[in-house]
Amino acid sequence: MSEDGTGALREAVLATETGLLLVVTGAGVSAASGIATFRGPEPEAVWRSSDVSLATEETFRRDPVAQWRWYLERFRTLAGARPNPAHEALVALERWQIERGGRFLLVTQNIDGLHAAAGQRELVEVHGTSARLRCSRDGCTLAAPAGSLPREEVDLTAFEAEPGLETLPVCPECGALLRAHVLFFDELYDGHRDYRFDDVCDAARLAAAILFVGTSFSVGVTDLLLRTGVARRIPLFSIDPVARAAPPGVRRVGCPAEVVLPDLVRRLRDAPLRH
């Protein structure tokens, strides 16, 4: 399909009318905020320099010190990041869609919290968030399937100063080890209520169009939404500046999200009302 899909994208969004416009974002939407992508071509892409197995429950059980050191470094790279024009445009797109009587949902794979910081309301953080931690012991009120606590309430200074088993952060309720409140690669999406996977599945069945922004289609949630969208024959678009082919059934817009999305919102606002 043609990479110049901006006009078709505008028409597809307009055509959702009172239906559900579903947006799915990956690390690429935060690149303009200075956050490295995971599988992008840039040298600082996370999985070019890190072992994927670090983000697993198996590693947490086997070597929690190594995993905590890695996650704290990841969290440090997110500190100070601010929403960019792509995040802000998605907030405006949500507002525009709802004001005209439609429905909107944004599902993000990102844990950086920038969508929430920008003011996104209809938001699912399907991979969790860097802003919270949770207990690793089954049955604890601060553990899965519903518990967590703000990361800012946990004193990590001892571990940061001298990483070791004795300084690992522990649960204030039961004393078990705390862990990142994120979806590990060897875990399931229904493992915690905060991931809201049932809502994502419902959105896949109801969406009038799906817009994928800054994602490489390399994780389970994008595969689910892609397969469902193709089977339902709804409009599917990918905003992705990386020179790679979009999956079959998806129309690619080969420009950065921080360029395409503000332009899309301007074009939508200028569009004549449909009767």
Features of this protein?
about 280 residues; 10 helices; alpha/beta; about 35% helix; elongated; 6-stranded parallel beta sheet; 9 strands
Task: Give a verbal description of the structure.
There is one protein chain. Helices cover 36% and strands 16% of the residues. The chain contains ten helices and nine strands. The chain has a six-stranded parallel sheet, sandwiched between helices. The longest helix is centred in the N-terminal third of the chain and has 15 residues, at 64-78. It starts with 5 loop residues before the first helix and ends in a 5-residue tail after the last helix. Helix 8 (197-206) packs parallel to helix 9 (220-232). It is α/β, with parallel strands linked by helices and 275 residues long.
Trace the largest sheet across and list its strands.
3-2-1-7-8-9
| Average pLDDT number | 92
- In whole angstroms, the N-to-C terminal distance is 30 Å
Overall strand count: 9
Radius of gyration computed on alpha carbons: 19 Å
Low-confidence stretches: 42-49
* H/E element order: HEHHHHEHEEEHEHEHEEH
SS-derived structural category: alpha/beta
Biggest sheet architecture: 6 strands, parallel
* Broad shape: elongated
Number of helices: 10
Helix % is: 25-40%
Q: Which percent band covers the strand fraction?
A: 15-25%
